[in-house]
Amino acid sequence: MKKNLLSLLALAVAGLMNSQVITQNSTPNTVAATGAVSCASSSTSTDYYTADNSYLRLFKLSDYGINYNYRITNIAFGVQLASKTVSGSSTNVGGAFPVEVWLYTTSGTTPGAGMTSVSGTNPLTTVSVSSANNGAMVNTGTSVNQVIPAGSNFVVEVWHDGNTDHDGTAANPFERFYMGTNAGAQTGLSYLSSETCGILTPIATGTGALASFASARWVMTITGQNSTLGTTEVINSRDLQIYPNPVKDILRFKFGNNLKSESIEIYDLNGRALTSISNSKNVNEVNMSSFVKGNYVLRVKASDGKVYIEKIIKE
Fold this sequence. Notes:
The protein is mainly β and about 325 residues long. The protein has no helices and 23 strands. It starts with 5 loop residues before the first strand and ends with a strand.
């Protein structure tokens, strides 16, 4: 039997404990065990599910020094918790379920009014998740091939509803999905909306009704190409870690997967190259002490032929 007791809930510990509340990542693709928030069944309910939730991030191509048509080929996001439950129990009964991935263009600077879906009334794609993905990343694979026009802003939305059309029986269990998050510094805001919880306009986590959830920072990675040149460019990849960010003097970075950097460039947001290093000696740091405070773009070409892009904040 469905319950109408709904509230904003944090995933308080790794596992299945609920705690009731009133209410673009410096460590990319690292999914924390705690910290997510979702509109979900009340902590006083004997059913365990998440209701309709939209997890959103807005990306400005100009923030990453991209001044050309950008072809998105993959969207990856973190999963903090995915489980299926029957009425009266918090035990995961196993099995996978789909979450929807939507992609919008917008002239606005926040998600909401003015967004245009690139795939009309259907999601861009769906991704299957299960408890096997808890604490890890999932991605859209080869199903995405979408060009974002030069100069555009775009919004990525991950949507799921584990309550509607589910009755909590063994044949049709409830579903619980908490978006992957970590508390590391972020250079763009994370947003949540939920019709069931009355959040019709996306709210940035850490503000308003979500003021208690400043650490809920959605983990997303966007992979794309210069649609003219075909060079693969990866935004906020797990394979490139930068620290500290914000930075005061020395910016350090390292690659995973045995990758090596072949060249390093830092641009301002007007697209001007301020630092360019041909990295034959595999340098893994850049002195930014002389840079004025503001936002910059780090572009590192790696030994796999891809260009990895990170937004940097100079303090």
